[in-house]
Amino acid sequence: MPESKGRKKSTYTPPRTAGAAAQGPNPRWFVPVMLTLMVLGLLWVVTFYISGVHQYPVPQIGRWNLGAGFGLMLAGFLMTTRWR
Question: What are the C-alpha distances in Å from 61 to residues 27, 50, 55?
Answer without folding.
Answer: 35, 16, 10
